[in-house]
Amino acid sequence: MSPTRLRSVLNLTVLVAALGYFVDMFDLLLFPIVRQPSLTALGVPPGDAQVSATFLLLNAQMVGMLLGGILWGILGDKKGRLSTLFGSIALYSVANIANAFVHSIPSYVVWRFLAGLGLAGELGAAVTLVSEILPRDLRAYGTAIVAAVGIFGTVTASLVGKYLPWRVAYLAGGGLGLLLLVTRFSLRESAMFRDLGSHEVKRGDFLCLFTSGERFLRYLRCILIGLPTWFVVAILITSAPEFAPKIGVTGPVAAGTAVAFCYTGITLGSLASGILSQLWGSRKKVVLVFILGALAGVATYLSLRGLTPAAFYLLAGFLGLATGYWAVFVTIAAEQFGTNLRSTVATTVPNFVRGSVPLITGSFIALRNHLGFIGSAWVVGLACFVLALVSLWGMAETHGRDLDFVE
């Protein structure tokens, strides 16, 4: 790439969007790392009680992200990408600081919900903004840069969660978000969004995604291809200490370490998938390879016995890597729809996937009583992967598509 074209990618807007993803990944990783010490401090005994409390908190956060995805997505198309990006950062920063002062499970649930509500807007707004300001043949490099900076979010969260008390860790996460708000005054809005004023179209009309069969199917496919990522994170990784003895791991497994390996893999996978989609000239091929790799990793996780804790952590890292097509997945959603709906779609799609976590965990818990941990994970996991592969098969390729159009 020539220096001029490199500079067109490495602009301030891309870097600020990437720093937003840094804070996003920091927060998403921090809760699974500190969930055991925080629940213990709040009086929840280890074992099944902590598993149930973890799912309660995780589900509250994911419901917040589901509702926030709709809220921030519509605002992004009505009011602008930048206002959405920084409004969401402000909300989850304040909520993270509040998490540091909880003293009961109900208050913890409320603030995890509000943190999820805030987190919902960042990635979709960032990808929409980056997709609209970069040349069409360089968009995947923008995605890769956003993902690369996100790597440091996972590394920072793992260090903060490991070496700082859990309350201080939440304060650090909120403080990082507030610091990022200072950069908003240096950025300009997407030209495509500004030019929408010349079109007689509705902006951010969420309901119109359901009034056309073709448009709804396009939208549904965008959501379903992301299911494998959150099956892996919500079931196999978040509950790693409980799964470990059931799959014959030869020693104890720490939830924080498993999550750190997984999320490091996810961010490395996001970087790799962005670069590969640019080099291969295809989004679909990259996502297919990653989904099949994740399926192989899940089969290994549920089938192998006698792994050492170190080997288990490496497997968690591979599962993260294979499900690390997240940034490309959001880019696909942004590229499928016109400028007047792009933020709505790019913000709601990943959060509808996150919002499916209560359904995934609820199905797992319901089947666990009849099939056990392993059998239940097989059934729920295969359902997620089949839906993703069928949806990917019917999608249009969007690499290099001109995004200056409306629905």
Automatic annotation (TrEMBL):
Top-level lineage group: Bacteria
Entry keyword annotation includes Transmembrane helix: yes
Protein's cellular compartments: Membrane
Membrane topology field: Multi-pass membrane protein
Transmembrane segments: 12-34, 54-75, 82-102, 108-129, 141-161, 167-187, 219-241, 253-274, 286-304, 310-334, 371-396
Record has Ribonucleoprotein as a keyword: no
Keyword terms: Membrane, Transmembrane, Transmembrane helix
Descriptive protein name: MFS transporter
